[in-house]
Amino acid sequence: MQEKDIEQLKDFLEVKSKILLGPGPTNIDERVRRALSEQTISHLDPDFFNILDNISDLLREVFQTKNKITFAVSGTGSAGMEMAMANVLEKEDKILVLKNGVFGERMSDVASRYGASVIEMSVNWGETFNQGEVIEKIKSIKNLKAVSVVHAETSTGALQDLNHIGNYLKDTDIIFIADTVTSLSGIEVKTDDWGIDVCYSGTQKCLSVPPGLSPITFSDKALSKIQQRTTKIASWYLDLTMLINYWGSERVYHHTAPVNMLYALNEGLRICHDEGLNRRFTRHKENGDYFDSKLEVMGIKSFINKKKHSSLPMLKSIFIPDAIDDSTFRQNLLLKHNIEIGSGLGPTKGKIWRIGIMGHNSRKDVIDILFNVLELYLV
Amino acid sequence: MQEKDIEQLKDFLEVKSKILLGPGPTNIDERVRRALSEQTISHLDPDFFNILDNISDLLREVFQTKNKITFAVSGTGSAGMEMAMANVLEKEDKILVLKNGVFGERMSDVASRYGASVIEMSVNWGETFNQGEVIEKIKSIKNLKAVSVVHAETSTGALQDLNHIGNYLKDTDIIFIADTVTSLSGIEVKTDDWGIDVCYSGTQKCLSVPPGLSPITFSDKALSKIQQRTTKIASWYLDLTMLINYWGSERVYHHTAPVNMLYALNEGLRICHDEGLNRRFTRHKENGDYFDSKLEVMGIKSFINKKKHSSLPMLKSIFIPDAIDDSTFRQNLLLKHNIEIGSGLGPTKGKIWRIGIMGHNSRKDVIDILFNVLELYLV
After folding, report:
1. Which among A294, A293, A292 has a CA at the least distance from the CA of A379?
2. Do A44 and B53 touch (CB under 8 A)?
3. Same domain, yes or no, for B230 and B160?
4. Are A186 and A95 within one domain?
5. What is the mean pLDDT of residues A3-24?
6. Can you tell me the distance from the alpha carbon of B182 to that of B204, in angstroms, rounded to the nearest whole number?
7. N or C end of chain A, less CB within 10 A?
8. How confident is residue A6, by pLDDT bands cut at 50, 70 and 90?
């Protein structure tokens, strides 16, 4: 960059605010912005340890768990996924991965990189798995170490029920890994009731905190398996056996925690707590229904066949109306109207849009703004 | 946590500000705080791509490199270290790791976890390597893939010269990895001149940005080696071959970038640019010397034998004066005077303190505050 180019920038960074209705990040509350900009303190300061304890406690609320090992990974949701795989799996371990979108595929890729023997079970994008069939598949695999599944598939908007699978796995030696990146704090995630052993999420979806951290929780069963490993965890950065000494009562330095992002997560979780989880779920449900009713009026079709499959209230995948050019339309929406929506990924690119109405942005007035603009182009 | 405990907390997070004179994080400038709290936009927004380009350009300035592949890893400095090792090394590859403190030890651990055959060369903590001897060692190892070394050893305050080693390695097939976590933007880091192929740093030291990102740069030689790999990189999250498609012109989604932390890094780098690198180095040097002169007056001894080894201007390791109880003293300093300094690690615990005068905090008035308080206890 030439010196003059840099000089031309404003003295302070000023970002033009947009309405974020893509698949994340969402807009963030003023309280979170204020927390972010608090002066940094040390990752080894007793005052900071109180914040870490608070985060763990509030995460236990949203994960609906009593798991002692509940904290935030110093990386985004994908780092949480990698943390789950890297710690649970040893070379040649068998894992069953359920695939019905991008994030199921990613699980499969990550697990295989860590040397696991990956068995895939697939349905088409936009579809969900029959839990009974999954349980039959699990029964058919000898020496299965883990099962992993995406609760809320961000690439399609499909909602996968987990309760029966988890209930079956509870009485086995098999570790149940669930990706709740898009669902956490927007719909029920009952980690303990559903028998999930490793449950991870992201901050930039329904929690409405900037991207950069991955909330995660490990059951005693998962921890015990990890402690019984005979090989070292390949990732030093994501090694649970060391990280728990920092997040636990010993407070042993591992890496320098991302202090200000943790302030933000703490505040985002406090906002969830202030609203109350059930009220938050109801709000997401009502606004999801409101979105669907507006969609029906406009004659736009959902990508998910709702008669056959469950869909998410906070992430709507819809067919792009005929005669609309996908990228031109989304560009206009962003540049002229300051509204972001998401494109399709992989096989759905150019066919669907993904619209996130998550956390801070799950509001009727925001949905109205989007539809008022859609009407300009579509009616 | 009981509900009442959470209710007792203040509505907004208010952190008691401290003077951070430990080995990082440092205090951050108002401009960085303001950038942090800008409203989040999407990681796929064209406005955000401009910020990413700006970060890469400004990082090339501080790394003194022309490397195209220059960006920030979505994790702390240790994630940068892991990124270097995970991408460069394949199983059984030989790496020579120079060890004279915690971060050399960590390099060795990380490399071995990724299956490398680690050859260690060690000197005592607080000492530095003779570059001629290192080159002789390198010559003695057949089929060496990489050499890795810590430029500024944060656990001891030792400064390792790299120019001759790098100059020798330039004409070989061997990859040179350097950890500049504590040195970057405080003293010269001449990535290209010194022949460093993979150079990584952290944000929370001399850049005075909160912890959470790791600036990193890869030479063409390193990139070409990585592209010739015959095995997949074990870490998906840190896989350079995918990440360069997001940071490069293609802008392919990999993971959701930590948007607000990148705002902060951009602003921290703009502050470096505004000051000018050479003026910044001079400031660190002068304040380091000022610190040493105050130390001498008080009769406190440096841990580094400066007649034999180079030391850092931004991280001072000093022997704890007799008759002072380490942890009581540091606790008083933090709780009564709001000043943080660092303890020794490993073999130096209870023997030395580590005092960081980095970036925003490399100032005479801050050093004076520290010494005024030290005098209360020590004189």
Report:
1. A294
2. no
3. yes
4. yes
5. 72
6. 9
7. C
8. very low
Distance, CA of B132 to CA of B138 (rounded, Å): 10
Contacts with A17 from chain B: Cβ below 8 Å: 39, 41
Tell me: the pLDDT tens digits for A332-344?
A: 999 999 999 999 9
Alpha-carbon dihedral B234, B236, B242, B243, rounded to 10 degrees: -110
A217 shares its domain with A303:
no
Residue A283 located in a structural domain: yes
Contact B270 A113 (CB under 8 A): no
Question: Looking at residue A3, what is its pLDDT?
Answer: 45
Q: How far is CA A144 from CA A95, A228, A276, B296, in A?
A: 6, 16, 38, 65
* Backbone phi and psi for residue B193, each to the nearest 5 degrees, phi listed first: -60, -40
Closest in B26, B211, B345 to A257, CB measured = B211
Last residue of a domain, one of B231, B257, B273: B273
Are residues A215 and A298 both part of a single domain?
A: no
Q: What distance in Å separates residue B232's CA from the closest CA in chain A? A: 7
Residue B10, pLDDT > 80, answer no
Residue B13's pLDDT band, with cuts at 50, 70 and 90, is confident
pLDDT of residue B11: 55
Tokens of residue B174, six digits: 């061997």
Contact state of B25 with A12 under an 8 Å Cβ cutoff: no
| Segments forming the whole domain that contains residue A142 | 31-273
Residue A142: phi and psi, rounded to 5, are: -75, 145
Q: Which two tokens stand for residue A272?
A: 């969830």
Residue A227 contacts residue B181 (beta carbons within 8 Å): no
Give the three-state DSSP class for A33. helix
Number of domains in chain A: 2
Check B77 against A256: CB less than 8 A apart.
Answer: yes
Residue A330 reports pLDDT greater than 80: yes
Please indicate, yes or no, whether residues B227 and B297 belong to a single structural domain of this protein: no
The C-alpha torsion from B154 through B159 and B162 to B165, rounded to 10°, is -100
Tokens 């504590």 map to which residue?
B182
Whole-number Å distance between alpha carbons of B345 and A63: 36
Torsion from C-alpha of B6, B8, B10, B11, nearest 10 degrees:
60
**For the residues A63-89, what does the mean pLDDT come to?**
98
Residue that is last in its domain, among A273, A293, A315: A273
Confidence of residue A12 (pLDDT cuts 50, 70, 90): low
Rounded to the nearest integer, the mean pLDDT of chain A is 95
Q: Is residue B11 part of a domain?
A: no
CA distance B65 to B99: 26
Task: Examine residue A250 and state whether it is found in any structural domain, yes or no.
Answer: yes
* pLDDT band, very low/low/confident/very high, at A13 (cuts 50, 70, 90): confident
Let me know whether A222 and A346 are in one domain: no
Same domain assignment for residues A98 and A231: yes
8 Å CB contact of B76 and A256:
yes
Residues above pLDDT 70, as percent of chain B: 97
As for the ipTM of the complex, it is 0.96
Q: Is A210 helix (H, G, I), strand (E, B) or coil?
A: coil
Whether the per-residue pLDDT at B74 is higher than 60: the answer is yes
Q: Are residues A233 and A84 part of one domain? A: yes
CATH number for B251: 3.40.640.10
